[in-house]
Amino acid sequence: MILVLDLCSTEGNLHRREFVKPVTDILAREDVEFEVKRYEEVGEIEADGIIICGVALMDNGFVDDVSKFDWLDEVDVPVLGICAGMQVMLQRDGWERIKSLEVGKLSLTEVPKDPVVGLPPDTEVYCLHSWGMQEKVGEWDVLGRSVDAVQMVKHKDKPRWGVLFHPEVLNKDIIDRFGKFCRLK
Amino acid sequence: MVLPLTMFLHPPTTPLSVKLGLLFSGGKDSTLAGILAGLEHDLVCLMAMVSGNPDSYMFHTPAMDIIGAQAEALGLPLIEQGTIGEKENELIDLSQLMKRAKEEYGIEGVVTGAVASTYQASRVQRVAFENDLFAFNPLWQMDQLELLQMVIDEEIEVIISGVAAYPLDETWLGRTIDAKAISDLEGLQKQWQINPAGEGGEIETLVLTSPIHTGRLELKRFKKFMDTENSGRILIDEVEVVPR
Asked: Least buried of A29, B123, B124, B237, by fewest C-beta within 10 Å?
């Protein structure tokens, strides 16, 4: 079972339909079981993997709540952070958020070969963020970039990935591959 | 355990209600988005771009001439913004529309019926952000057959007002979207790769009424106009708003 975390600070379903449901629809199509929770209500984790979803452009509520992700230090299961989800994981490693407005389709200047987040050269991704992350040497390696931002990261020791773009919109197979990776673990 | 769709329909917490303007075309997608937004927030106005370009990149044009009647049937004020419909000018006009809705109705966000077009969605997102407005896209990335089913489940009465793809023809114009129509569109999807909800512009729709409408549109006089065998639209000469 994949735990899918909703980081939207606009409570209710309107943004959840936009940032969480597209992720769970992809899992459901592949018959991957999932459970959706809000990030403040994680509780005991019994999942095989965790996806931390993105939020709307104007929504920065999660930034002040990074301490509510202390459980990340305890879990060993694979984690995929999307946009805000990636930012939260990197903030915990001391990366700083920097203004970076990228909205719409764009091409990556560097793409990785990776079993979960790997993409063919010249792949377009869909971005929706007004903040990015200032690169820092630490627990994470940078796997992919656009002209303006770090777009893909992988933890040096743990099965954890972060993507700043939205794979639930373009490159849905990243979510497929993550689901399969968790199932094999 | 795969959770049912209904988990996305019933909020787990009491939401903070904000004032929203609905980017409205009169079709099924913007109406359904408005219904979903209205469950949690305060819909205060309709916002429509009136494009002079029938092939607008951004905005759906057929049947825009009756949008005033639709606003009356919804019981919501309408702000219309004209645009000559050229690629980047449309964005300046869209920004103007958002500014007016902020000034006149104090909106804090906009709702759109965007489903799959990253071109449309990213431009609305950017213009909303520049105007310090939230953008809500509650149908984003929805499966098209699921979307059509939701239109029926939400009791939206909607007809096909335009067609623009083989093998759709004149017989589809005016047809109500019901279970039989969905099944037929699903068949065309399998055989001809038609997007069943018209995401590729294959069909345009016109909503007559829904549970959030206070009135219902009655098309008193209209005719079907076909440019080619597989491209045409309904031209409405007279419409009346009657009580629901």
From this structure: B237
The per-residue pLDDT for range B194-209, each reduced to its tens digit, is: 899 988 889 999 999 9
Q: Which of A13, A15, A33 sits opposite B2 (nearest CB)?
A: A33
- Residues of A within 8 A of B125 (CB-CB) are 57, 103-104, 128
- Which of A6, A14, A99, A175 to substitute to test the interface with B, most B CBs within 10 Å? A14
Full DSSP string of chain B: -PPPGGGGTS-SSPPPP-EEEEE--SSHHHHHHHHHHHHHSEEEEEEEEEES-TT-SSS--TTGGGHHHHHHHHT--EEEEEE---TTHHHHHHHHHHHHHHHHH--SEEE----S-HHHHHHHHHHHHHTT-EEE-TTTT--HHHHHHHHHHTT-EEEEEEEESTT--GGGTT-B-SHHHHHHHHHHHHHH---TT-TTSSEEEEEEE-TT-SEEEEEEEEEEEEEETTEEEEEEEEEEEEE-
A170 in contact with chain B, both atoms CB, cutoff 8 A? yes
Are residues A28 and B16, on separate chains, in Cβ contact within 8 Å? Answer: no
Specify the residue for token string 């050269």. Answer: A121
As given in the structure block, the two tokens for residue B72 are 């009356």
Q: Is some CB atom of chain A closer than 8 A to the CB atom of B11? A: yes
Cα A85 to chain centroid, rounded: 4
CA distance B135 to A133: 23
What is the least distance, in Å, from the CA of A142 to any CA of chain B? Answer: 26
CA atoms of A107 and A124, how far apart (whole Å): 4
Q: Model-level pTM?
A: 0.92
Closest CB from B12, B118, B136 relative to A14: B136
Packing angle between helix B179-192 and helix B144-153, nearest 10 degrees? 170
Say how far apart CA B197 and CA B16 lie, in whole Å: 32
User: What does the pLDDT look like over B150-203, one tens digit per residue?
Assistant: 999 999 999 999 999 999 999 999 999 999 999 999 999 999 998 999 888 899
Q: Which of A139, A162, A140 is nearest to A152 (CA)?
A: A162
